[in-house]
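Below is a filled-in request sheet from our internal design queue. Each sheet records the structural input a requester submitted and the sequence that came back. We keep these sheets so that new team members can see what a complete request looks like end to end.

REQUESTER: design group, bay 2
PRIORITY: normal
MODE: inverse folding
CHAIN LENGTH: 651
BACKBONE (tokenized):
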């Protein structure tokens, strides 16, 4: 049996040595991974990547070519590319927003006394949120307030005659832009349904009209569904504060029962985190020959338990198969989003058992557990007992755990940043605003999104982040992007500060924050929107998000959620650089609208740039353009005052 030490030349598919080792080991074991399947799919369909194939009706499918400029119904490349793009926005918006709906249900059950072991972990966040939306809090208990807030949030999903209430979280000037463009969503579900209706054969054909509808639906994700998911998670599980932990496959333990949580819904993982410390279960694990229970995460569930419990992360999206390949995972618990169907095939090669906990997500070879909120802790204990009993089935000769693991600091919610910048008695963003105005921080960049086997995994996230902090740009990260930089050692303040520009480093050291802030899972991109809003409220940097020296990027994105995220950032007035374009290359008109013309409407636009260094150049150029427009790049004239003028100042 192959071991890591006697592997042949290691296959280079990532900047992460742990990934390269495991992919090479998989090849020696003849176990196919995502990279093998990518190779088997070459060459990929050019019509699909150009966005000019249509299968929306059964007169087709149709493909647009120089000889066939119209589909059977008469749709051209512009209509087809726009409709295909909108269906991705609809799916991405539905994914994050349905995540939020599940959390609201849990909040309602807790409020009604049917939440099992779930509690209101952050009463202050609950009361502040309720007050903002006009829910009475005076002389009322937390559970009563939580019930009203849950009802309020649930109403945001259905159709309403008025725009979604949570849009009021945005700056007033931005709300006015949405109103003028008539892209204010009036319900999450109705926005998704409307988009699917518009893209049905024979409905909406104008690509401009279609894309504006897509922006509207994306806002129902970013400012409504995702925002709700983040807020309710904070209320139920606690608002994140900085914690130290470790990341990469090296966090798996050869002497312990290893359980991995993978997916995006944090509800069960919260109970697993509690149950993994249960003394009875720990003793049971020891009775089976293990030193204890080691709970680790993959993908965004990993970020959720990291931020709130300091639990280690085994890796990001591209490492889910590789975690099983270590031969050291007793159970992988999966729920929704970014879970590869291949996991069952890989698990069959080892002793690993897959447990599926979502009623809407079943995976081949996975054992379904009908998860119920009121019995959450019982379910968690049951899953951990399955893992403990499986520990003795592990083949010690096939255990190959890479040594790579890196310390990280995560958990930078807006509430934490307020406290760190302003101190205990006056939480404020003022020091950040002053640093931007003075030029010590040139601007702020958000780097988000997935990892993708089409490029060296993690490399573009890491290089882009380094390029930006070296040029004195503060970086905010979420999701798999944050995990990538964590594995590179950039989420430890002392390491990343050594790579930051002199003035950015000076500010970060003064207020006690690193130059790259891990803000949470991919649904927590709403925290980045709120950070921009908080900067505006602090004053001195314009009145709208489109005025700010900020930019966004998703260098290795792959999912429909990323399509929706990109659109709600553009609809919010941000410049967004993607490492590869949407499937719209076959329509020059749609491409031009997204990358140029939409800016005159929303103040934001897309750009496509595969080279991280060039992407950083473009983002910095945009930041400097915004600084010029604000007048904060202008050198202030020095004036020498005489004694009479000085007396005038004193008076």
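RETURNED SEQUENCE:
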């Amino acid at each position: 049996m192959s071991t890591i030490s006697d592997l042949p030349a290691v296959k280079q598919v990532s900047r992460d040595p742990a990934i390269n080792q495991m992919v090479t080991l998989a090849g020696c074991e003849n176990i196919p991974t995502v990279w093998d399947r990518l190779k088997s799919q070459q060459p990929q369909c050019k019509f699909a990547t150009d966005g000019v194939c249509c299968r929306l009706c059964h007169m087709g499918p149709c493909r647009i070519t120089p000889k066939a400029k119209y589909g059977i119904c008469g749709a051209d490349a512009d209509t087809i590319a726009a409709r295909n793009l909108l269906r991705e926005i609809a799916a991405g918006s539905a994914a994050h927003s349905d995540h939020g709906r599940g959390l609201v249900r849990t909040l309602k059950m807790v409020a009604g006394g049917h939440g099992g072991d779930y509690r209101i972990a952050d009463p202050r966040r609950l009361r502040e949120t309720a007050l903002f939306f006009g829910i009475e809090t005076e002389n009322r208990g937390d559970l009563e307030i939580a019930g009203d807030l849950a009802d309020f949030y649930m109403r945001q999903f259905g159709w309403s005659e008025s725009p979604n209430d949570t849009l009021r979280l945005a700056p007033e000037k931005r709300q006015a832009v949405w109103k003028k463009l008539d892209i204010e969503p009036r319900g999450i579900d109705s926005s998704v349904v409307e988009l699917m209706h518009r893209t049905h054969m024979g409905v909406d054909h104008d690509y401009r009209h279609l894309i504006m509808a897509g922006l509207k639906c994306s806002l129902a994700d970013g400012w409504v569904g995702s925002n709700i998911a983040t807020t309710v998670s904070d209320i139920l599980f606690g608002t994140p504060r900085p914690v130290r932990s470790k990341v990469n496959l090296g966090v798996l333990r050869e002497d312990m029962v290893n359980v991995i949580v993978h997916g995006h819904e944090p509800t069960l993982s919260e109970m697993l985190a509690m149950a993994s410390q249960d003394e009875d279960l720990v003793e049971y694990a020891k009775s089976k020959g293990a030193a204890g229970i080691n709970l680790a995460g993959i993908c965004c569930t990993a970020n959720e338990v990291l931020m709130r419990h300091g639990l280690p992360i085994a890796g990001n999206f591209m490492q889910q198969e590789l975690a099983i390949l270590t031969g050291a995972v007793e159970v992988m618990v999966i729920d929704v989003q970014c879970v590869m169907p291949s996991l069952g095939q890989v698990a069959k090669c080892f002793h690993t058992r897959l447990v599926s906990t979502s009623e809407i997500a079943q995976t081949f070879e996975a054992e379904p557990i009908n998860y119920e909120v009121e019995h959450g802790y019982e379910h968690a204990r049951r899953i951990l007992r399955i893992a403990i009993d499986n520990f003795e089935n592990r083949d010690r000769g096939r255990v190959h755990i890479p040594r790579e693991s890196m310390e990280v600091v995560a958990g930078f919610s807006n509430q934490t940043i307020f406290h760190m910048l302003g101190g205990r008695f006056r939480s404020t963003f003022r020091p950040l605003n002053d640093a931007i105005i003075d030029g010590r921080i040139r601007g702020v960049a958000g780097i988000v999104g997935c990892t993708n086997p089409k490029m060296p995994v993690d490399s573009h996230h890491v290089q882009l982040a380094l390029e930006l902090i070296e040029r004195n740009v503060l970086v905010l990260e979420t999701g798999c992007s944050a995990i990538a930089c964590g594995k590179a050692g950039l989420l430890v303040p002392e390491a990343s500060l050594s790579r930051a520009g002199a003035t950015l480093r000076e500010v970060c050291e003064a207020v006690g924050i690193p130059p790259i802030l891990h803000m949470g899972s991919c649904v927590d991109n709403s925290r980045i929107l709120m950070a921009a809003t908080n900067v505006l409220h602090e004053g001195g940097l314009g009145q709208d998000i489109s005025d700010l020296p900020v930019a966004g990027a998703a260098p290795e994105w792959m999912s429909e959620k990323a399509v929706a995220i990109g659109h709600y950032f553009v609809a919010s007035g941000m410049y967004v650089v993607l490492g590869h374009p949407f499937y719209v290359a076959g329509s020059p008109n749609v491409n031009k609208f997204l990358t140029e013309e939409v800016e005159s409407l929303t103040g934001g636009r897309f750009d496509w740039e595969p080279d991280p260094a060039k992407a950083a150049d473009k983002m910095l150029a945009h930041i400097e353009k915004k600084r010029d427009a604000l007048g904060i790049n202008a050198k202030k004239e020095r004036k020498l005052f005489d004694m009479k003028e000085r007396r005038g100042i004193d008076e």
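SHEET NOTES:
- The chain has a mean pLDDT of 93.
- The first strand starts at residue 53 and ends at 54.
FILED BY: M.R.
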